[in-house]
């Protein structure tokens, strides 16, 4: 489940949830919500890049294969004519229109946010906002990126069983 969907589910339902663990959540906010100029510039770049990719199908399809070669998982990004519409909807709904920050603020159980120090998609400014929220602990896993490998999997298991230490 996308982490922002998990956060929304936990915020909006009264299921018997004991804890929320988000792994490498792609949390984005409006650049104006960030206090540091570098953080604002990075967030602005991400959002403009996502919008450009979403609005420029020919460019994106032409360059998707090149970008995919740089990813560590083969076929991690399957963008073609057949998958274009779901890809665009995913970008729009999960990145450009997300409500993760407000969803996290509504959750009444402990929250662990785990991310890799090499995660290309995380934002230090957003993580500062997240870490200041009541009940949220953030965990930076050295040497890990946004994909769930051994280090993130171990940290996630530890967060679930309550043994993850900052």
SSE topology sketch:
Blueprint (H helix, E strand, L loop, with lengths): L2 H10 L7 E4 L13 H19 L1 H14 L13 H13 L3 H7 L4 E6 L7 H8 L4 E6 L8 H12 L5
Parallel strand pairs: 1-2, 2-3
Explain what you see:
By secondary structure, the chain is mainly alpha-helical. It has two domains: 1-27 and 99-166, 3-Layer(aba) Sandwich (Rossmann fold), CATH 3.40.50.1820; 30-97, no CATH class. 50% of the residues lie in helices and 10% in strands. The chain has helices at 3-12, 37-55, 57-70, 84-96, 100-106, 124-131, 150-161, and strands at residues 20-23, 111-116, 136-141. It has a three-stranded parallel beta sheet with strand order 1-2-3, sandwiched between helices. The chain is globular and about 45 Å long. It starts with a helix and ends in a 5-residue tail after the last helix. The relative contact order is 0.19.
Low-confidence stretches: none
Q: Strand-and-helix sequence, N→C?
A: HEHHHHEHEH
Mean pLDDT: 84
Alpha-beta classification: mainly alpha
As a percent range, the share of helical residues equals 40-55%
CATH class membership of the largest domain: Alpha Beta
Distance between the termini: 25 Å
The Rg value, from CA coordinates, equals 16 Å
Considering the protein shown, what is the CATH homologous superfamily of the largest domain?
Answer: Alpha/Beta hydrolase fold, catalytic domain
SS strand fraction: 5-15%
Biggest sheet record: 3 strands, parallel
* Molecular shape: globular
CATH-derived topology of the largest domain: Rossmann fold
Number of strands: 3
Which CATH-level-2 architecture of the largest domain? 3-Layer(aba) Sandwich
Number of helices: 7
- Taken together, the total number of domains comes to 2
Order of adjacent strands in the largest pleated sheet: 1-2-3
Quaternary state of this entry equals: single chain
């Amino acid at each position: 489940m996308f982490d922002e969907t998990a956060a929304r589910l936990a915020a909006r339902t009264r299921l018997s949830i004991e804890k929320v663990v988000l792994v490498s959540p792609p949390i984005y906010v409006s650049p104006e919500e960030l206090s540091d100029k570098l953080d604002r510039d990075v967030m602005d770049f991400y959002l403009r890049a996502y919008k450009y990719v979403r609005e420029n199908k020919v460019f994106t399809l032409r360059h998707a294969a090149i970008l995919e070669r740089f990813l560590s998982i083969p076929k991690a990004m399957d963008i073609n004519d057949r998958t274009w519409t779901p890809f665009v909807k995913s970008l729009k709904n999960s990145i450009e229109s997300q409500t993760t920050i407000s969803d996290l603020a509504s959750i009444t159980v402990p929250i662990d946010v785990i991310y890799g120090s090499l995660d290309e998609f995380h934002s230090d400014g957003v993580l500062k906002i997240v870490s200041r929220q009541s009940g949220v602990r953030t965990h930076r896993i050295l040497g890990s990126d946004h994909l769930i490998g051994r280090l993130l999997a171990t940290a996630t298991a530890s967060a679930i069983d309550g043994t993850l230490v900052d």
